Amino acid sequence: MKTLTISVDDETEKLLERAVAGGRFASDSEVIREALELWEKRKTAEAAEVEWLRREIQAGFDSGEPKPLDREAFFAEVKSRRAKRA
């Protein structure tokens, strides 16, 4: 395992100290490792969400020309679906 030296501000130092003092982590290194794992998971989830949005946008483009919205019919449908769930 490689050893790194990092600089942190006072607030981050206090966060690390509290995390270790709380007993969940044995060392600052464990805190940093978990933080990096969570960061990586978040980046992966964000990338998946962006890809999903791209597909949904493309599906919208591929669905054809927009059609006028009948507001009364739309809201009647929404109310009907809500009533069925209740």
UniProtKB/TrEMBL annotation:
Name-wise, this protein is CopG family transcriptional regulator
What keywords are assigned to this protein? Toxin-antitoxin system
> Which family, according to the similarity comment?
Belongs to the ParD antitoxin family.
Superkingdom is Bacteria
Q: Which InterPro entries match?
A: ParD, ParD_sf, Ribbon_hlx_hlx
Pfam families from the entry? Answer: ParD_antitoxin
Q: Does the keyword Nuclease apply?
A: no
Read off the Gene3D superfamilies from this record.
Answer: Antitoxin ParD1-like
One GO biological process this protein is involved in is: regulation of DNA-templated transcription
